[in-house]
# Entry
Amino acid sequence: MLFESWLVLHAADLVQQAASHIAITVHTVHTEAGLLLDEITQRPTDLLQGPGGTNGGCQES
Amino acid sequence: MRPSRYALVSATVFRHPSGRVVRPVLHTRTARVFLADLGTAARLEAATGTEGESGAEGERRLAAAGLLVEAERDEAAEVLAAGRDDARDRRVREFVLMPTAYCNMGCGYCGQRHERLAAGAAHRSAVARRVERATTSGRYDTVAVRWFGGEPLMGYAVLRDLSTCFVAATEAAGVGYTAKLITNGTLLDARKLRVLHRQCRIDRIEVTLDGPAEVHDAARPLKRGGGSFRRIVEVLGSALDDPELGGLRFTVRTNVGRHNATLAEEFAATLATAGLAHDRVLCYPAPIHSWGNQIDDVAVTGEAMAAVELEWFLAYRRHGLRFPLLPSGPRTVVCAATTRHSEVIAPDGRVYGCTEQPLVPGAGDDHLGHVSGMDAAAPRPTGAYDDWYDAVNAGETPCRTCAILPLCGGACPKLWREGKSPCPPLRDNVLQRLDLYALDAGYLPIVGS
# Structure
């Protein structure tokens, strides 16, 4: 329910995003009849990368 | 070959640009995310190995991604061994420093006891000597300092004094230096921010805001009375426009409890209006947890927190705030308490392994020594949690069988040993977060699937 309510709220944005994504990736369409494995990991930004410390679940993380 | 125990497959199906139907897959061992065709997805969620339909090349690709592994491998043991090795071999020397034991706030859920005690001159010299010896040891590539408290800016002079020493020592030794400040934000202003960033070389500041203004001001009252939310947000917004602070990043943490769990939308809108929907501002909600104190009246239970966290992410998303939807990498060293290359130095000079021992009633005596009496060149003495990786491997906690162990690391050894489960909301909402991740990447779900 949560997932779909979010989807409805952002349907227009998502359609636009999907259209541009298709335009970008159309040349990489997989030709294998079997396996399709497409990595979509986003490269972490500086904002998401810590300084190499041990920040974690602690109160001061 | 069999599926990796760390391959998590969402039940939601998405349309791939190729026209095929796919499902998202998260490999928690590497934090990599994939879309896989339905046959492959079904194979990866099978408990046992079956012959794939993708042929030898397909098998090779799945194995290269870590999604298929040899049947006899003990992946949990490998994860824990990697943690043990990283804790032993890490080349970052970390100091968590508390320049004062005082805090100007009186938050009801805080587990610390604050008193007006600042680090004395002898203690400061011993800390500086310890950092200097770390820089010249040849053992470390980077010194990382985290300023913590109490409220560390109540000890602003100590922080400045020590930072000057640390920056000089690391520059002289050609060692990297990074510093982070964890603060309630009430004492920040433009002038201080420039000193902290330009002179003290602090590159990340974490501020706690507990929801919309009225709720924050009630939950985090100043001891002298009055609120702080509007001023903190204004200072952060202005800092983002200051060209002298271009390298400074902010994290906005929200301690989520019963008082603010349902207020994500209003909070996110307020932050966005203040200009904090910005590439240098990261937001995250953190459940209020026990420091040994009684928090049952204010905390949200673990299962409910998983749903609350999603609501907060969705509100962040709607208002353009940046947030970590999934961890960006595995967490080999779970916390400072599990590596002797990290230590916590309290305002009275006592050295601890864990950040939740100093200033905490009942835990303050768990120190490992005094900074003035230690061999300045040695890592901190072994503490109560330095056996963590072996203990988990031996089954002390259920983490060995948990699919998010590589991302979580076991969360909090101290809480486990106090008989409390510290499992993060991620354990319960990882698949929904994976779905949102695929959505954010621009893939459309087939609704009703």
User: Anything to note?
Assistant: Chain B has 14 helices and 16 strands. Chain B touches chain A through 89 residues (CB under 8 Å). Residues 156-173 of chain B form the longest helix (18 residues). The first strand of chain B starts at residue 2 and ends at 3.
